[in-house]
Amino acid sequence: MAIIKIQKGTKDILPSDMPVWYFMEDNARKIFSEYGAKEIRTPIFEATELFARGVGDTTDIVNKEMYTFEKSERSLTLRPENTAGVVRAFIENGMHRLSAPIKLWYKGPMFRYERPQAGRQRQFHQVGVEVFGIKQPTADAEVILMAVNYLNALGLNDLSVELNSLGCPKCREEFKTKLKDVIKPYLSQLCPDCQARFEKNPLRLLDCKVEECKAIYAKPEIQEVIQSDFICEECSEHFSGLKSYLDALKINYSINKLLVRGLDYYNRTVFEIKSNNLGSQNAVCGGGRYDSLVRNLGGEDTPAVGFAMGMERLASLIGNRDDEKTRAFVVSNNTVEGIKLAEELRRAGISAEFDLTNKKFVKQLEKASKVAKFAVILGEDELNSNQVTVKNLDTSEQKTIPREELLKAI
Asked: Is residue 214 part of a domain?
């Protein structure tokens, strides 16, 4: 019978991989809780309309990458990202009535049908933070600081932060008009995606990765428009405030006018954090402000800002971490007493194993040396004297002690 293999774009996370995943998850819980963020877990599928309205029907995610299916005449979609789902939960559960800021963090699988590549799968995992209720740039600065501190806690220090301001809808429309005017003469030379974006969402043109398109956008007359300070006075003050906070916090950053992010809901601040230890796909964190999304999804007008990180990409940067060994391995040919002692240790909160196949002593000791910190030897002599022999498998030091002193000894 043929073996059924894993689907393209998915990957098993094996027991040997788990130490790095525990490391990422434990640090997320620690760092984000220090900022007052609470964990939220939303369903992995939602109404398709949530992503069409939230992420934007001009994005590649909605147009090309969603896993959508029909069930009982309803269109459902596996979540391609989690901001829309968190906003839906925020609205549906009346969180706007809580005292601002409301800080939420999440982790879990996302799904996008795209070409698999290094650090990017069709089922992938993200960890992220969303902060609701604060319109001031203090929230933007704290979110960026939270992301940087989390990455530092993972041992990732060779980072660069890139910022841009997309302005508000009013000042952005003027910029879009100027951008379309200067790009229009080159429209026929652009890739099919950019030609479609030209009318629907011209800002997305700047996010194109096709080299021919990038060369066109690098032309002096187009760069003059891109590099112009198009944002209004209020948006400019917000962006200046953010930069002043980052300066005070000693967060190094640079301004990237081509940074627009791939989702329609962003306004004003957008940012990416990049690792200099990766190749061209070097972004490890992306985020920004999305002040209109809560209202667009049926809630009250609520400012918000957040970020997300791909955990597979983080894992590739962190590298392997040693699995924590079992604390004790009970070595005994008396299976009844051996399994009783192993269970006694577990109930005391100490990880313990016991040889279920009752191999010879020497084989049990060999196994213990590979998986445990201590061998707890329970032979006939020890049973008769109500003692145990404890061997430190790192130092080979061995001593026989009264049974009641075992917990203290290990």
From this structure: no
Digitized pLDDT (tens) for each residue of the chain, 410 residues in all: 889 999 988 899 999 899 999 999 999 999 999 999 999 999 999 999 998 887 766 566 676 788 898 988 899 999 999 999 999 999 999 999 999 999 999 999 999 987 777 667 899 999 999 999 999 999 999 999 999 999 999 999 889 999 999 888 888 777 778 888 888 888 888 888 888 777 777 777 777 778 888 888 888 888 877 777 788 899 999 999 999 999 999 999 999 888 876 666 788 999 999 987 765 568 899 999 999 999 999 999 999 999 999 999 999 899 888 778 899 999 999 999 999 999 999 999 999 999 888 888 889 888 988 989 999 999 888 888 999 999 999 899 999 999 889 988 88
Q: What are phi and psi of 266, to 5 degrees?
A: -75, 145
| 161 and 272 within one domain | yes
Q: Within this chain, do residues 245 and 127 fall inside the same structural domain, yes or no?
A: yes
Structure tokens at 33: 């809780």
Q: Would the CA dihedral through 241, 268, 176, 257 be positive or negative?
A: positive
Question: How far, in whole angstroms, is CA 138 from its chain's centroid?
Answer: 23
pTM of the complete model: 0.85
Are residues 128 and 308 in contact, defined by beta-carbon separation less than 8 angstroms?
yes
Are the C-beta atoms of 83 and 110 separated by less than 8 Å? Answer: no
Give φ, ψ of 373 to 5 degrees: -85, -35
> How far is Cα 205 from Cα 257, in angstroms, rounded to an integer?
12
Collapse the DSSP code of 111 into the 3-class scheme (helix H, G, I; strand E, B; otherwise coil) and give the result: strand
Other C-beta atoms lying within 10 Å of the C-beta of residue 241:
15
Residue at token pair 């799968």? 121
In a domain, 220, yes or no: no
Do residues 264 and 81 make contact, with C-beta atoms less than 8 angstroms apart? no
Q: CB count, 10 Å around CB of 147?
A: 28
CATH of the domain at 380: 3.40.50.800
